[in-house]
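sry for the spam today, last one i promise. struct tokens for design, 275 residues
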């Protein structure tokens, strides 16, 4: 009987400990920390998405980032720009390279309502100059990430309109550390008919951290996943710990590589909402 009680206490402490992780501390990144991360500027007003360099003329991001507000069409490639080799809007770094998109390939099975297959590859109209001191192609992680493993999520600081301190209001690259969660526990907290796919990773953060679909996550320096969606557990006592759900790139390694040599553009009129 005593052993059973002790076992229950250990399980309860483990669960509570996982819920009481230290809140994510957002930090400004430094030069050379995430050289594969770029900004993706689209016609969507006041929004910079992030992407990750795959090679000198391809960038990986989310499908959300390159779709119109109503998620029914892909932005014209000529209106999408990629800014690489810089970690802040101003001042402009000598290593900054700006490119216009030539083609945008969204995963054919992307589902806006469930966030499945939330990936897109941008082909640039002009190659990035590599090697560069400010830009580097990402190494994709092909190994399983163990539970509780620490990883870094890279995001972009987007200053509020009423920002008081100008020095704090400069849009810039930032990062924070998270721990990988048990996928089943994460799915149980969602409590809807929508499940957390095996191809997804789940982590905790705090409600003070702002992320956008497409923000990359690196584990041991390798590109592991990109942000797909956020949800809050229904328990009101846990509203300060939203779950970040991201898409693992290792499950899409074949699809990503196919886009690098793809010769056909997206079909005219392709609309993910119709599927």
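last one done:
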């Amino acid at each position: 009987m005593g052993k059973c009680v002790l076992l229950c206490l250990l399980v309860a402490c483990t669960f509570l400990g996982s819920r009481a992780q230290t809140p994510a501390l957002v930090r400004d990144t430094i030069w050379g920390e995430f050289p594969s991360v770029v900004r993706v500027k689209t016609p969507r007003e006041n929004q910079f998405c992030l992407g990750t360099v795959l090679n000198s003329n391809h960038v990986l991001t989310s499908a959300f980032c390159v779709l119109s507000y109503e998620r029914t069409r892909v932005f014209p490639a000529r209106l999408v720009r990629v800014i690489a080799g810089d970690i802040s809007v101003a001042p402009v770094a000598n290593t900054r390279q700006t490119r216009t998109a030539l083609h945008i390939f969204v995963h054919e099975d992307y589902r806006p309502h469930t966030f499945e297959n939330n990936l897109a590859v941008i082909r640039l109209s002009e190659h990035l100059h590599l090697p560069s001191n400010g830009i580097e192609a990402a190494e994709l992680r092909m190994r399983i990430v163990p539970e509780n493993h620490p990883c870094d999520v890279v995001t972009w600081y987007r200053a509020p309109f009423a920002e008081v301190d100008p020095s704090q209001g400069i849009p810039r690259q930032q990062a924070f550390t998270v721990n990988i969660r048990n996928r089943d526990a994460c799915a149980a907290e969602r409590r809807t008919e929508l499940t957390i796919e095996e191809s997804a990773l789940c982590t905790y953060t705090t409600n003070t951290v702002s992320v956008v679909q497409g923000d990359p996550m690196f584990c041991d320096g390798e590109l592991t996943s990109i942000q797909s969606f956020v949800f809050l557990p229904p328990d009101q006592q846990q509203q300060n710990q939203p779950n970040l759900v991201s898409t693992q790139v290792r499950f899409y390694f074949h699809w990503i590589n196919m886009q690098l040599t793809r010769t056909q553009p997206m079909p005219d009129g392709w609309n993910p909402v119709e599927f």
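The two ends are 55 Å apart (CA to CA). ok im logging off now
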